[in-house]
Amino acid sequence: MLDAVVHAAFPVFALILTGWLCVRFKLMHAPSMEGLNKFVIYLALPAQLFDAMSHASIAELVRPGFFLAYALSMAGTASLYAWLTRHSTRPVTDQIIDAMTSTYSNAGFMGIPLCLIVFGKVGLAPSIIATFMTVSVLFAITIMAIELKRLENGHVIPAILKVTAAMLRNPLLIAPLAGVCWSATGWNMLPAVDRYINLLGEAATPCALVAIGLFLALNPLRGIDRTLVRIVLLKLLVQPALMAVLVLYVFELPRVWAYVAILSAALPVGTGPFMMAQIYQRDATASARAILLSTLGSVLTISGLLAWISLNNP
To answer: What DSSP element (H or E) covers 114?
Structure first.
């Protein structure tokens, strides 16, 4: 089991280190990070989201209990973070992104391969839903919260219209919706086009992780603060515990679906919050550090979780 976790976590560390070394050896500079971030946000990540949803079977993904459990675990974890930091003096936008960080799993890059290793093909469908809930639903809710907060002093109707317009212009929301619509048509995509989208999408996570390495090299980290500790503990311990209660005792789900939900919730922080901070030009230090530290910690926590799953599912 430990081998499976290390196999999934090692590429994350290696890609972050690659970006860090590129700065140290002066192969890349600050403009490189900005260009890489824009490539991920406007091209690669939307292609990845469209590709995942366009190949998903809508009928196979209809599991209301799974959706509700995942949504409630994210909402509960983010709400707990908001309560713990209710006296914080950090800007509200930064606090919203930090709350997102505390519940944003690395579902696509680590989750899907790990679930395939542990559960085989039966783990693919629930891991795709976990990815969709994280990179699409959580992204949408975070953007909505930030936009509403920025317009809180305006009238309700104009504020709603502005938020809607901002969301409709966001490729990270448009892409998965377009993918779902394409899947619903049942049409076959031209192989050349499908391959193009797939290749573009596969560049998203590696480029995002290299960009994080660039950021860490350009903004040296000193010490571990309270915000980072809260985020990592909530992500690695609280969210999977809450998810376990929901999928094992509240909602009726097939055993594999329940285990995939718990495993997905226990994954370390993904690159989404870092990208969100870049979109809104906020300080990305907390999210970058959380990705690094939670990935390191997840080697132990996920190994323990997989050992528990193997004991309960021989």
So the answer is: helix 112-119
Instruction: Give the residue from 113, 110, 180, 111 showing the smallest Cα distance to 140.
Output: 180
pLDDT of residue 218: 80
Convert the pLDDT of each residue in 76-125 to its tens digit: 999 999 999 988 888 899 999 999 999 999 887 778 778 877 888 788 77
- Whose CA is closest to 286, among 244, 230, 206, 207? 230
**What would the two tokens of residue 144 be?**
């909505």
Predicted TM-score (pTM) of this structure: 0.78
Number of structural domains in the chain:
1
Domain that holds residue 178: 2-312
Which ranges of 87-150 would DSSP assign to H, the alpha helix? 92-101, 112-119, 124-132, 139-150
What's the Cα-to-Cα distance from 300 to each of 1, 4, 176, 229, 293, rounded to whole Å? Answer: 11, 12, 33, 16, 12
Cβ-based neighbours of 252, under 8 Å, separated by 6 or more = 65
Distance of CA 205 to CAs 15, 48, 49, 270, Å? 9, 9, 11, 9
CATH code: domain of residue 88 = 1.20.1530.20
